[in-house]
Amino acid sequence: MKNIRLVVLDMAGTTVDEDNVVYKTVQKVINDKGFNIPLEEVMLHGAGKEKHQAITDVLMACTHIGNVTETAASAFANFKAELKLAYEQMNVKTFPGVKETMEALRHAGTAVVLNTGYDKKTACSLLTKLNWQIGPDMDGLVTADDVTNGRPGPDMILKAMEICSISDPQEVLKAGDSTIDIEEGKNAKCGLTVGVLTGAQNTAQLKTANPDYILESVADLKTLLL
């Protein structure tokens, strides 16, 4: 097993169980424009991406409209308000065993950073609902607002490495619930990439990105690394 000093974990569907509310909201703001795109297609084409990009990619894959840019911008303009309302009405929790695994990794000397295609305000609102804080519960948070290029670019992982003073990407493991998480890890040249089955995509979909491992949950990282 590689010497892993940093674990970078996606948020929604990986560490945070929010019942796919983000993708349901993406679906709503797109379908409010007169479409009828199923949630499965939204998750297939939008999972793990910065949300304006996700909306754009879903529209490009699932519709034949001429001006995707204008429609995507209009849908995204409604997205943050719709998501804020959805979050206010729901109970956000983590998946079983995830918090304990994060604690065990950090206790063993492995840094844990969360990264996400959310903007910082949304990500921080999730952490507040979980009562998680940078320092006591994790070593850092990297959001779409913190980098120039979102997934599958490596920027967020490189930022996490910078936070933790790690220069060798072979010492980094990236875990997430979508193929774009795996692609992000590979583009950052991470030592290990791991798909988890708690979120957006199934085993067959995750396998298309060739992760090193596919696990039922982030909780299983404890068995893999410790």
From TrEMBL:
What SUPFAM superfamilies does the record point to?
HAD-like
Q: Which Pfam families match?
A: HAD_2
Organism's domain of life? Bacteria
* InterPro entries (alphabetical): HAD-like_hydrolase_sf, HAD-like_sf, HAD_2, HAD_sf, PGP-like_dom2, PhnX-like
Entry's NCBIfam families?
PhnX-like
Q: What is this protein called?
A: Phosphatase
Organism per entry: Echinicola rosea
